[in-house]
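Lecture 7 notes: from sequence to structure.

We start with a single chain of 419 residues. Read the sequence below before looking at the structure.
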Amino acid sequence: MAEPLVIVGNGMAAQRLVKEVTSRAPGRFRITVVGEEPGLAYNRVLLSSLLAGDVSDDDVELEPRAWWDAHGIDVITDKRVTEIDTRGRFVRLRGGAKVPFGRLVLATGSAAIRLPIPGAGLRGVLTFRDKNDVSELIEQAKGETKAVVIGGGLLGLEAAYGLKKLGAHVTLVHLMDRLMERQLDGPAAAMLKAALEQRGIEVVLNAESSAIQGRKKAGGLRLKDGRTIDAGMVVMAVGIKPNASLARLSDIAVNRGVVVDDHMETNVPGIYAIGECAEHRGVCYGLVEPAYDQARVLAQHLNGDSALYPGSLLATNLKVSGIGVFSAGDFMGAPGTQSIVLRDPQRGAYRKLVVSGETLAGAVLVGDTHDALWYLELIRSGTPIAAIRDGLIFGRSFCEPPMIAPAAPRCMPVHAAAA
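Now the structure, written as tokens:
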């Protein structure tokens, strides 16, 4: 008889786990997926494109209803799990219904952080995290011409891009001295800022938000230095926090996220966590690829195979407001490393490679990210690069056989610097 496996959460991590489990152990589990959102799992990476009108609802859906039905998955949508009974081995849904489990997986994701500043509760103050947020932003944008986005990380840039595409005048404010400071070095961030400004997005750095102006509805943002920015919409995109409250109410260990071991198992046997809600070796990952790595390891474990999750090398490889951005590994350059840099202002391209000894330790690319996955594999594998070091900055086609090197691109001189 199939063992009941319940997955709480219906996002990208949950869908990937279902895919992994059903391919490795078909028929072994009777799977129930419970999600708070009204629809099926969708690709959050495409939310900015959905906001901008570049894609439709169907385009962001990971798999159609027929796929779930074909795999025998019971998908419960628009229902919140209110309780986990770790002794009785069931979860309780809003409304009182119980769903029994043999194994339980928490894939509850994360929630948008709201700044605790005056005016944060006004109408017109929104977040950018899920499809419901996208719908609200589109509705608000119909009657507003000015918008402020707080936060210069990935979510903030995506929100700014989407609102600009909708026709709003967008000002992006960021607390730090450069955009995407966790993923980009100074020159790369400066190039990204210039590209955004060319697209009509105003960028204000070193800007600390102090209050949102307005009585019943947002009218603008006041900064700590006294400056004010008029806007009928204020979007907070200042970060995320793991959705771990459900576990915290049970006997499940929680720090910042739900604490798991290398099998993705919590302190309660048979209960697991993956994705943005999970904390592994003190780290909560807010990216898709680590969630997929965790789903694969957990599926192997559930199937009785030997599998351990060692953690993930952080890498970013995506389009930010239509601009290619990639970073991985030690892209800032620890002491003892060397940096190789290529700038091509005419093409709007920037590359920085960080070399440690005979291996590639990190990389940053802006504009042309064609070789991103190749650089990532070199970083992950620790492949010796001595034989190709001189041409490494020009990419894979320059370094790999056939050794007929293409003409070097027109660019500013390559230089190497010790970190």
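The mean pLDDT is 92. Keep this in mind for problem set 3.
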